[in-house]
Specification:
By secondary structure, the chain is mainly alpha-helical. About 75% of the residues lie in helices and about 0% in strands. α1 packs antiparallel against α4 (about 35-50) and α3 runs antiparallel to α4. The protein starts with a helix and ends with a helix.
């Protein structure tokens, strides 16, 4: 996980997971609209997933 991705996940979560696929971006975007903290948590979990 890159430090720039982590900072981007904190500032604008959907943009941080853009390389992980459309589904990830959509999920993080919906969570960010519902609340900023759930979007950040989801983005960090997706970025930290070793399988993708």
């Amino acid at each position: 996980m890159n430090i720039w991705r982590v900072l981007l996940a904190i500032l604008f979560p959907p943009l941080a997971v853009i390389g992980k696929g459309c589904g990830s971006v959509l999920i993080v975007f919906i969570l960010t609209v519902c609340g900023w903290v759930p979007g950040v948590i989801a983005a960090l979990i997706i970025l930290n997933n070793p399988k993708r």
